[in-house]
Amino acid sequence: MAVAQRMNMIFIGLDDTDNLESRGTGHLAREIATALSDTFPLLGVTRHQLLFDPRVPCTKKNSCAAILLDAPLTCDLEAVRSRVRDIMLGDFVDGSDPGLCVTSRVPAEITEFGRRAQCDLVTQAEARAVARVHGIVLEGLGGDEDGVIGALSAVGLAASGSDGRYVLVGRIRELQGLQPVGVLLDAGIAAVETPDGTPVRDGLVDTDRLRPARRASRPVAVVAPQDGAPWNGVWVPLKLD
To answer: With left for phi above 0 and alpha for psi between -120 and 50, is residue 228 left, alpha or beta?
Structure first.
């Protein structure tokens, strides 16, 4: 009888891969995730909001992205990193300052760094220092390399299990219009809930641009009743950070 391989999650963080005219970091992250899914089970791609402040240079809203993969404990992280690096360099956009982080270990200090980056100014030197302490490879791939801040933050925030929202998981991007709750669950969403955590099992959900929240390391569609009285059985998904 075959022995099942022990699996391990790989976190890939990237940031600052775009300029005002190009497609965003989330788009590139989805492309990379799709490319990697021919080798590893894809657990999702998440978006994480960092400090939005005039003092922070950013293309649009200062968000970063994380790719979540399932892989054997024997997986060659350097090979994964090299493959992602090649895709990012092949897609380099003038005016961008991309950063990349690939790791299967995310100590609490990395998550703490990501939390700080959401509410305070942090520096590239701080990001590199905390990564170095924990033996995590963090690299800039062009420009002034400030993207390393978001890349490390994305890894830490995704690893927390309760931050950001999924821009890709299962088949959610195939869904359109009003769909029963069961269809969302079949498409890869773990649960549909109201903001207070009450499970939703009935009604129709507007699935256009559905972006479930990452909560308890699961994709959860958080919904609210559609405006109107009385309630007409339609739920509207909320976009949560």
So the answer is: left
155: left (phi over 0), alpha (psi -120 to 50) or beta: alpha
Tens-digit pLDDT profile for residues 177-200? 999 999 999 999 999 999 999 999
Strand partners, 9: 70
Structure tokens at 228: 């109107």
pTM for the full predicted model: 0.92
141-179 pLDDT per residue, tens: 988 999 999 999 999 999 999 999 999 999 999 999 999
Backbone φ and ψ of 171, nearest 5°: -115, 25
Q: Identify the three-state secondary structure at position 68.
A: strand
Return the CA Rg of the chain: 18
Tell me if 66 sits within 8 A of 102, measured CB to CB. Answer: no
Strand partners, 103: 11
Contact 63, 49 (CB under 8 A): yes
Pairwise CA distance, residues 162 & 230, whole Å: 33
User: What residues have CB less than 8 Å from 183, skipping those under 6 apart?
Assistant: 175, 207
Indicate the domain borders of the chain.
Answer: 7-165, 169-237
SS3 141: coil
Tell me the average pLDDT across 123-150. Answer: 95
Tell me which residue of 219, 221, 179, 183 sits closest to 200, measured CA to CA. Answer: 221
CATH code of the domain made up of 7-165: 3.30.70.2200
Q: How many CB atoms lie within 10 A of CB 178?
A: 16
Name the 3-class secondary structure at 61: coil
